[in-house]
Every structure is written in C-alpha cells, then in structure tokens.
Specification:
Distance between the termini: 44 Å
Largest sheet: 3 strands, antiparallel
Number of strands: 8
Shape: globular
Structural class: mainly alpha
Number of helices: 7
Order of helices and strands: HEEEEEHHHEHEEHH
Helix content: 55-70%
Strand content: 5-15%
Oligomer: single chain
Length: 223
C-alpha cells in the first residue's frame, strides 16, 4: 500500500512541476478520434479535427483508471489466479493467501509504472491515452493497436516514441525487484515482465479499439 501512495505522490509532484500542457490547448490533426475513460469512451478531440492536449486532471484520471479501474483490477484477478495455479513465485504458495500476495504485488507494480509514465510524460507533453480509429478500415485499426503500444501522441498532436512508457515499464519492473520474492527478482525476471507489460498494453489497446463495436453488436442482437 505504501508503494501505491508513493506512486500517487510521484505523479502529483511531476504533474505539478510540469505545467507545460494546458488543458485547453488544441493542435490541428488529420482526423478526429475518441479517447478511453472510466466509461471506456469519451470525446478527446475538438470540433474541426483538433487534438486537445491532455491536462493535469485528465492525466491523473488516466492514472487512476489504468491502475484501479475495472479493466486493470479484472486483469489482476487472472494474473494472480494463474500465478496461484502454477505456484509462481513459489514463496507465496498455492492458496488464497498466495493469491492475495500476487494480486497486491501486481497492483503495486502497475501503480508504480503508470505513475512514472504519467508523471514523466507530463514533463514533455507525452499523452498516455489511446485514441480509437473508429470508422477506419480494419487494417488501419489493427495497425494503430500495434503501433500505439510503443508510440504516443506528443504535445503538438503528432505521434512519436512513448519514452515515458518505456521508462515506466522498465523502471517499475526493475525497481519492484527490491520487494519481490527471491525467485522472481532477477534481471531476467524483470525483462520478462517488461515484455509482458507491452503485451498487456497491446491487449488493452485492442480492447479499447474493438470492444465498443462488439458491445453494440451484442446488445443490438439481444433487443
């Protein structure tokens, strides 16, 4: 829990120091898109095809949603459940107590990584949000899911390398070695978790991109 509080503090401090990205700042872009929020979708662009730079409040909401939102907490159930089923790390044991430790360990790691990504990103205007390409050809949408795993919108609205995400993913996984079980605290273990982190990001992008369409189809058929 202390690590979670520390992550929030890091995020608030970095966001406060930045002050470079104004919530109302807009930049022309090619297309108008949609952003994820607590309800999965929320308008992110202004009328006329303008990208609206992320503000401090929205950045903190992104941190909260991706850390303790329904999608993240549900993913934690599967992750902790799988770890408990195969008893890894073995120090936690294959029981409910071990499940709780694995769940809490994932939560502290996720909160630290997201705080680093959001906090550092605020210093140079990197936007951690994923923007859907609704209405575009399926090939373009799939490309966005993959590309935006490693890229992010910058302050000017253009897409560039997601440096804050790289640092958050790597920093979180190597930093967390200091409080992980001995059998899961090696450099190799951290590298595997980094790869899994990017795989998880890609899955999250795919969910954000296609779930709204699937949900409409499912509920339309039920009516």
């Amino acid at each position: 829990m202390l690590n979670l509080y520390s992550s929030v503090f890091i995020l608030l401090l970095a966001t406060a120091v930045s002050g470079q990205t104004m919530p109302g700042q807009t930049t022309p872009i090619q297309t108008t898109r949609t952003q994820r929020s607590g309800e999965h979708l929320k308008a992110a662009s202004t009328a006329g095809g303008y990208y609206q730079a992320i503000g401090a409040g929205e950045r903190f909401r992104w941190f909260a949603q991706t850390t303790v939102g329904p999608e993240s907490l549900t993913a934690g159930l599967f992750s902790a459940g799988l770890g408990t089923a195969i008893d890894r790390p073995r120090e936690y044991g294959p029981h409910w107590g071990g499940f709780g430790k694995r769940y809490a360990m994932r939560l502290t790691g996720v909160s630290t990584g997201k705080a680093i990504e959001a906090g550092l990103g605020s210093l140079w205007g990197e936007d951690p949000r994923y923007f859907r390409a609704a209405g575009q050809p399926i090939k373009r949408r799939l490309k966005d899911v993959v590309v935006m795993t490693f890229a992010a919108r910058q302050r000017d609205g253009n897409v560039g390398p997601a440096h804050a995400r790289y640092l958050g993913n790597a920093g979180n996984n190597f930093l967390s070695n200091s409080w992980r079980a001995d059998s899961a605290s090696g450099a190799g273990d951290a590298c595997i978790r980094i790869l899994l982190g990017f795989a998880g990001k890609m899955g999250s992008n795919a969910f954000a991109e296609f779930w709204p369409d699937a949900r409409k189809l499912i509920f339309h058929r039920k009516q």
